[in-house]
Automatic annotation (TrEMBL):
UniProt source species: Corynebacterium alimapuense
MF annotations from Gene Ontology: hydrolase activity; metal ion binding; sulfur dioxygenase activity
Xref: Gene3D superfamilies: Rhodanese-like domain (3.40.250.10), Ribonuclease Z/Hydroxyacylglutathione hydrolase-like (3.60.15.10)
GO biological process, any: hydrogen sulfide metabolic process
UniProt protein name: MBL fold metallo-hydrolase
Amino acid sequence: MLLQRIYDEDLAHASYLIGCQAKGQAVVVDPRRDIDEYLALAAHHGMEIVAVTETHIHADYLSGTRELAAATGATTYLSGDGDEDWQYGFEGERLHDGESFQIGNIVIQARHTPGHTPEHLAFLITDGAFTDEPGYLLSGDFVFSGDLGRPDLLDEAAGGVDTRFIGAKQLFASLRDVFLALPDHVQVFPAHGAGSACGKALGALPSTTVGYERKFAWWGKYLAANDEQGFIDELLEGQPDAHAYFGRMKRQNKQGPAILGYPLAQLTNVENGKLAEQIIADEVIFVDTRSQDEVHAGTVAGSVNVPGVEKSASYGAWVYDPEAENTPLVLLSEDEAEANEFRAHLIRVGIDTVAGFTTDLNGLPMVTPEMIEPAELEGYPRALLLDVRNKTEYAEGHIPGAQQLSGGRVLWNLDQLPDEGTIVTYCQSGVRNSVAASALRRKGYEVIELEDSYLGWTAYQNQR
C-alpha cells in the first residue's frame, strides 16, 4: 500500500493519495482544486486515480473533488450523514457510517464523526494485502495532532446560531464512541497542520496515533473522567477569528465548485504600456507580490499587496472577493512559472480571474503608501486606530484605544469603519498590516500604516 501526504504550507492543508500497488489503483482524499500534483504523483507510481473523496464540506479552501473526478473519470464518494442543511448539492455516491468502498486490495471505511461539521466522516484504512484490520485513520478536521477541529465555524462562517454547543457535544461523543474505541496502534493522518484556522492549537507533526492522543492530548483527561462540560468549556475558549472568506468556501463546497478543466491555459505576459492604461481605467487590479518594505518604498496605484507565493491563497482571499467583483488580476512575478504557481494558490480559494503577469514596474503609475512612526502616534489626529491582528492576539495586548478587526474580515465589515477621516492600521510586525491596508486603500479609505506595527510600538514604549 502507498500512502502519500500532499501538504500545502499556504493553507496548512494535507490531502492524501492512497494506492494499491498490486492493482495500480488509487484514491485521493481531500484534494485541493489545482490538481496537477495528484495527476503527476499517480503517473509517477504507475497508478490510475479511480476514486476521489473528502472528509467534509471544507471552510478554509475550495475542494478539488469535482475537478479531479472530471479530469480522471474517478468515482466520487461523499458523506450522506449529517442534518439536511448540510447535504452535498452535487452528484456522488453517498457514504454513511460503517459503509466502505475498495481500491484494489485496500478497504476504505467511512465513520461518521460529527462535531467540526454535522456531515464529517473519518476514513479507516485497511491494507487487505497485509491484514483484515484497519491500521490507519484519515481524520479530516476531527482529530489533529494535539488538538481537535473547532466546532464553531458554522456560527462564525456559515450563519449558524449557537451551533458551537451542539458541535462540541458531538465532538465529545465522536471521540468517545469512534476514536477512542480504536486500538492504540492506529496511525492518524489529519487534514491540517500548525497554522490552520480550523483549530486553535494544532501540532506540526504530520501524523499521530490513537494511543498518543489518548494519553497526551489536552482533551484526554476530560474523556477519561467523562467530563463533557469541562471538555466543552476548554474546547470553545480562545478559538481564533475565522476568515470571512470561509463563508464563501462553505457555500461553494456544499453546492460544488465550478470545474475549471485541466490543463489550464498559460498566462500572458502583459505589456506594461497597455497595463498602465488598464490600471488607470480601473480595468484590472494589480497584485504587488513584493514584501511590505518594498511596497512601502513605492507601489502601483490601486494595487493590492499579496506578498510572496507562500501565503498567496490566504492573503489573496483577504483582499479580493470574487462574489463581489470579477475584475481581472495581473500579477507581479519573476517569470511565467512563478505566475502560474501564484495562480494555482489563488485557485485554491476560488479566485479564478488571474489574467496575466508582468515582471517589472516600469512605466506603471506609482504611489507611496503613507506611514507613521510609533513616536508620532500619540495625539495624532485619526478617525480610527485599527488592529488587524487576531482577536486572541489583541486580548494578549494592544495599543490603547485600538479597535480590533482581523485582516481576514476587514473587507466584509466595512460598516465598522468610519466614513471619513484617517484610519491608522497595525498588526504584529507589518506583513498583515500591509495586506489589509492595501485592500482598504483600494476601497477608497485614507489609511496610514504604523511603522513596524505593534512590535515597533512596544519597542518605543520600552525605550521611553
